């Protein structure tokens, strides 16, 4: 059974990183979808760019949709793990699966030059999401209380260090991951 997936995000890469470096890092993803190079990495949706490296801006731009099987997530995580050494800063990349039964599964994969940079980006995304959700019903002071608790949770995890289990027995970042720097967070919600 094949599922439609959309991958979206922009990755700032290090100065001096070449398209060949990025293609080599992304080989697990490109091979999975039977693509040899970024120039062939077109999206199934014609209005989307696909996977494009803008050398001048040092930006890997990803707006790609395709049909994939159940092993795609592993190939994607492996590719993003290999991309981490070429990143200048951490970022989140959205991955959305559109299942045949009408469910949408939205997740984030975080990439970055270091575990600390990725954890900061995860924290920023979490604070932004929680603040937006709470702003519908609460004032800034009340939102600040919850954001303080979120920051405490992240500080506790960071202080425990890599490899330390959380209360539920997952990895230190609480996410299923192929790497210490490429992390996936599952967030199930309907996007439409």
Count of β-strands: 6
Number of domains: 2
Low-confidence stretches: 167-192
Taking Cα atoms only, what radius of gyration do you get, to the nearest Å? 17 Å
Average pLDDT score = 86
Q: Overview of this structure, please?
A:
It is a single chain. The chain has 192 residues and is α+β, with helices and mostly antiparallel strands. The protein has 2 domains: 3-113, no CATH class; 115-173, no CATH class. Helices cover 34% and strands 24% of the residues. The chain contains 5 helices and 6 strands; from the N terminus they run βααββαββααβ. It has a 6-stranded antiparallel β-sheet with strand order 2-3-1-4-5-6. A hairpin with a 5-residue loop joins β4 and β5. It is globular. 26% of the residues are buried. Mean pLDDT is 86; it is low at 167-192.
What can be said about this structure in brief?
The chain is an alpha+beta fold. It has helices at 19-25, 27-32, 72-83, 115-134, 140-160, and strands at residues 3-12, 50-54, 59-68, 91-98, 104-111, 183-188. The two termini are 23 Å apart.
